[in-house]
Amino acid sequence: MRPANSVYSSLGTTIFTVMSALAAEHGAINLGQGFPDDEGPDDVRAAAAKAIMDGPNQYPPMMGTPALRQSVAAVNKRFYALDVDWQQQVMVTSGATEALTDCLMALLNPGDEAIILEPAYDCYRPIIEAAGAKVVAVPLDPPHWSLPHEKLEAAFSDRTKLIVLNTPMNPIGKVFTRAELETLAALIERHDAYAVCDEVYEHLVFSGHKHVPLMTLPGMAERCLRIGSAGKTFSLTGWKVGYVTGPAHLMEVVAKTHQFVTFTTAPALQAAVAYGLGKNDDYFASLASSLEAKRDRLAKGLKEAGFDVLPADGTYFISADFRPLLKNKKGFNGTDEEFCREITVKAKVAAIPLSAFYSSSDAPRHLARFCFCKQDAILNEASARLKAYAKGQTT
Predict the structure, then answer these.
(1) Alpha-carbon distances, residue 57 vs 50, 84, 223, 265, 271 (angstroms)
(2) What CATH number should be reported for the domain whose range is 42-279?
(3) What secondary structure letter does DSSP report for 62?
(4) Which CATH architecture has domain 6-39+282-390?
(5) Using CA atoms, how far apart are residues 105 and 256, in angstroms rounded to an integer?
(6) Could you state, in order of their start, the residue ranges of all structural domains in the chain?
(7) Interval 341-362: pLDDT, tens
(8) pLDDT of residue 14
(9) What is the pTM assigned to this prediction?
């Protein structure tokens, strides 16, 4: 029989599925998958329930409901001083992954090159390659994950169509500085390229850091597509409501892609997200501060277990070097994947090997990613289990 699509048929089972299955098999606490274990704000969920009962429940406009598009434009102005025309520059999608697909498919042609920064969220590469474009990966190095100016400059060429920028960055929790963004903006402008900006963790920023959309820098508003996520902003990941903001000339093409991917998104959820985006500043500040406290709680537990914890200034995730923990545990000399499997089975705590977010064989093999957007009691228990494992008290 004729082969299926070569990009997708060559993909294996994702590490997230593998580790989650292993966690379930061994009764482990799953700190691998990135979703909160609460149900999101009561008032936002109540707004969705009311909208379902009141209707309408038929197809909403393809671009999204006016109320949500207006709310997205308003928060762009409120938080970042961006003047956005909601009718021409905002579109609602069924989650941020759909938004990424729409943007990348709209911009890329076969033979184009697209730059990604690694470690990278795992959907970027297959979407780019399925569009017939070539991925050019630029690795960031631990522990501080600074933008490698020389490597990045070398990655740009006359074939570069775009760069995918994820800030705050999954899986490492990096928040790019204004200086780093200015370097990137200069390269984008010099090479007449675009940026697809995955900013789903925009409100989850800690330690006094500030999220700066690339779109706010001089010359970037016409070159950036900015993606947000209600799932991350309201801890409602199962709702799959995302949105794209960009210049009208690009949004016109992105919308044409969207109409043949999902076409539209549940109207009641759109109504609830529109309500949620209007919540006062205290909500957004408390969301960040609550997660920062959880980050600190898990970081303390990991350090006490013997890990060397890396900086994490945003997102749901924190990375840790497990080599110091193993100094007193003879007999283990494996990779990060083998370590994550071991702690899932023996410590009953699941994590994700960071090398899974790289495409090259020289990825770091000594780091594990843990998710901290869990209840405090769960984080405490995971820390206790890892401490017991480090002391050799588990089998």
Answers:
(1) 12, 28, 35, 11, 11
(2) 3.40.640.10
(3) T
(4) Alpha-Beta Complex (3.90)
(5) 10
(6) 6-39+282-390, 42-279
(7) 999 999 999 999 999 999 988 8
(8) 85
(9) 0.95
